[in-house]
Amino acid sequence: MTVRPASVNYGIWFRRTDVIGRDAMVPAIWDAVTPSRLCTVVENGAGVSVSTIEHIMAALAGCGIHNALIEINGPEVPILDGSAQPFVTAILGRGLRTLDEPVRCIEILAPVEVREGEAWARLEPAGALEIDFSIDFTDAAIGRQHQRLSMANGSFVRELSDCRTFCRQSDVELMRASGLALGGTYDNAVVVEGERILTPGGFRRADEAVRHKMLDAVGDLSLAGAPVLGRYVGNRAGHAMTNRLLRALFARPDAFRIRDCDAATRARLPGAGVDSRDIPAVA
After folding, report:
1. For position 165, which CATH number holds?
2. Which of 13, 139, 143, 225 lies 20 to 30 A from 46 at CA?
């Protein structure tokens, strides 16, 4: 997979280099998302899709990249170590190019919420992107966790980028049966079963699980097509619910506005001023 620079207002696109005879361009945008329980999948009108895009999308958003072409020679983004850090390290190691045009952002003007059983997600007004997330798992290895962070000033790279996906052993078996994560091992996810952590070395942080859910939310929110100025509050929410939230937002023209960011607002966007020294050291 190769991430290439793109021009102003290009957005984020995937190009399936292995696809011949059909449209190989797949937009990374909210209304191209197709239903999937365990990951985020985007698909074009020709039926060409790319799955498990949430970590690369989070890395791009967290590094302040709003325009890029991602060339990929298969249907699934590599899982690597299960976090966004390998993508962040590669991006910041290569360097960023500033485009001479204002950044447009989506400002949340009124609360929008979606619910399903005990799970819910909400967007509400705030001066910068904030993520407030709670999880509650029966597995004692995870249990209840809560974290709230502003994504300003490189916080994504420092606080979330190294946090890996986690799952039960039964989820691994389900993903493989669905044709996903076929190369998955304990090296690219924290696998738990009840109170046991099956992955050697365990969690990188005591609350790595909820932080990874926040990482996923950053990636899924980036499918709005522009940086979001607002607070995302999630309780037991996942990829599908965050996409439902974006669909509910864009169905409410009174709940948001799209505007150019002034200098003060740009300084609060994820990725502003970040560099490779912000990347956490991991074992």
Report:
1. 3.30.1700.10
2. 225
